[in-house]
């Protein structure tokens, strides 16, 4: 089986996570600058077999678009243009960053490790989005 890759897109940083080849466990992969994410994905797809991509899609509590939705939609359009044959799934990302922060605290991460500038929270958020996708599908 091939992996599934998840993307937590942000204007500055993009968190990435992948499943194991059996698609059982979601693990944080990397955090890359948003301007570098397409190049990173080209390289990753050439190196690893990826069956599908899941992108965290931001909505508010009522399920409506947020300020971030427009930027994510622009990235989705670019992704579809660059990778037209890659299956793409949207996953609600509501509260994924808060859940990532909480899980990092529970795992014993110190404040420096959790710091958003380090990008750890972005890739953990992507792993949470991917795990939710796996559980729902």
Automatic annotation (TrEMBL):
Residues 2-100 form the YqgF/RNase H-like domain. GO terms for cellular component: cytosol. GO terms for biological process: rRNA 5'-end processing. CDD domains: YqgF. Its main location: cytoplasm. Transmembrane segments: none annotated. It comes from the Bacteria. It is an enzyme of class 3 (hydrolase). This is Putative pre-16S rRNA nuclease. The lineage of its organism: Bacteria, Pseudomonadati, Bacteroidota, Cytophagia, Cytophagales.
């Amino acid at each position: 089986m091939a992996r599934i890759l998840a993307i937590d897109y942000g204007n500055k940083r993009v968190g990435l996570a992948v499943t194991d080849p059996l698609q059982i466990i979601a693990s944080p992969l990397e955090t890359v600058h948003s301007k570098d994410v397409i190049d990173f994905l080209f390289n990753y797809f050439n190196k690893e077999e990826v069956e599908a991509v899941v992108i965290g899609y931001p909505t508010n509590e009522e399920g409506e678009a947020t300020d971030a939705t427009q930027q994510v939609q622009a990235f989705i359009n670019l992704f579809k243009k660059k990778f037209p044959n890659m299956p793409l799934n949207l996953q609600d990302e509501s509260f994924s960053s808060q859940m990532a922060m909480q899980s990092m605290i529970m795992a014993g991460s110190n404040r420096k490790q959790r710091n958003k500038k380090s990008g750890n929270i972005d890739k953990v958020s992507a792993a949470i989005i991917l795990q939710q996708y796996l559980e729902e599908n």
